Amino acid sequence: MPTQAGAQPARVGRIDAWIDAGAARVEQPFRAPASAGLVGLGVARTGRTLSLSGQATGTLAGDGLGAGQGLVVASVAPPIFTALRTEVGASLTMFGLASQERGSNGASLLRQSLGWRYGGVFGTLAGSHTRRPLPMSRNALPLERFRATAVDVGLWGRYRWITASLMRQRAWSNDYLVAESTGFGLIRPAASYDFRDLILNTGLTVSGFNVQGTIARRVGGTATRGESRAALLTASVAMTPSLTFVVSGGDALADPLRGTPQFTMTSAALRWRIGGRRTAARADAAVLETRGNGGAVLTVRVRAPSDARVEIASSHGEWIASTMPREEGLFVARVLLPSGTHRVAVRVNGGEWGAPVGLASVRDDLGGSAGLVTVP
Amino acid sequence: MSRHAIRASVRFASWLGNQRSMTGARRFAIALLVPCAVPAQPPAVPAPHAATIDAMPDAPARTAVRELLDRAPARGIPVEPLLTKVREGIAKRANPERIRDAVQLLSQRLEQARGALDPALSVAELSAGAGAIQSGVSLPTLRELRHLSPAAPLTVPLGVLTEMIADGVPPRPAGLRIRELVARGASSAQLIAMGADVRADVATGIAPGTALELRSKRVISLLVAPVTPTFSSPVPPLRPGRPGPP
Questions:
Q1: What are the C-alpha distances in Å from A66 to residues A40, A58, A270, A372, B85?
Q2: Chain A contacts of B159, Cβ < 8 Å?
Q3: What average pLDDT does chain B have?
Q4: For residue range B35-60, what is the model confidence (pLDDT) as tens digits?
Q5: By the number of CB atoms within 10 A of the CB, which of A28, A196, B87, B238 ranks highest?
Q6: pLDDT of A324
């Protein structure tokens, strides 16, 4: 399951949505390297007590092996003790959408996490998948069904801009194709393969740049013999507040829960964030231009329908409201402010007063908010 | 002194003055009483501002606000920010009780800021201090900032600090960073630019605390070593060379 233990929401109370588009080069055991186009969309809402996220991804490989995947994860914490978070999730994948080789998998997880900046996590996971392999002859092969369960336990922590987690996972699966394709076998009869993984995740976020690394080692336990390793690196650069470039390279272990084999991948994608946090780079963000002799001109822009009535008021102007004229599709006001701290608010069609976009929003003790601006 | 007492004093002084044979004792009594009959200072709420308060519809709330404004000079806090809050409440059509509560809260914060920033260098600085307190900045942080910057106004550092907290940076690390920057002599322009950079970083998805760390270190690298490295003492015992109140 593509969730990371200990991952905490960075921004609380907001809904983010994004669209991904890119390309990937994938190599799998016993299969020729394939290029694939990928598109995806996601939505996430992070909160102190309830976080929800959903993602859908579609890939279409050059050999016609298309796949569609959906993932939903919810994280719940009691309001009186938000350090205790319960994470539940489910994923569903359909592959072979455009070819004869078809199959599907579904997986679920239940994890309990404890801690704010660092802590522990443990969970249980279960998965089931079906696969109809490509026939080597004209005879149709039967549909095969596999099941897997897993438990994991680990530690996670966050210090300044670094995050890390170390997980120990043990999985039992009867999928012989996944096991044998990565060199695992049974030395005596057994009901399932026993995979024991050690997974280290690390992340670094610095000024719009994010890099995540995963190193994993798998060995067989009980009657299972074999060993495999994988390392995957993903980096993203925020080119603008809404556009991020993501590259990824490396290999990932086979997933016994979903029946996906070990693979080596190189990918590049653009992520476009829709809406989300209001940013200073928006066309309607307030701009402060300082003047040499002290003071500044604050330009406030408001996006509203052309027939709207938009007003602005400020503490410097004794809170006397004035109507903002419309310029090039936006309502614009330029306020001359002396040195000091000032509060500014706007409203549309006589509605609630609020902070203009691009200014820090502070409470006004009157049940609303205002924008705060500091002038040198 | 109440209005009735003033009126009685004036009557008594007038009676004394009308006596044909004024004794030395009477003259002494007049000398004592007449100054008492004249208010010691002009009213806290001048006539144009009184019109602002009169715009409040609710009489009890109006009276309460007027009393708060009247008492403000005696408490050492300026009337202007309180009047501005009244105007804000009226402009935003807040109910009178809410305006009264908001003015009361602001007057408390101004008083706290005055004590922590003593001597406050300007009304703007005091207002910025009240805003910082509202956002969660502690009084020891204000005192230490004043200790580090006894002669230069703290309006901009406090304003940037309040903005950063509003953007999601926790008050404690934000206060520590601003103290460090003030100690190293960061200019107003540097502080404001740093605040804007932090906001832009937060907007791109970076955790507010991380954004502050990164941006403040960029500014710090341009500055000299701190003049007063003792950040640990919450209240400096002595403040030699401090200028008097403006």
A1: 13, 7, 20, 51, 62
A2: 340-341, 372, 374
A3: 73
A4: 333 334 444 555 556 777 777 777 88
A5: B87
A6: 92
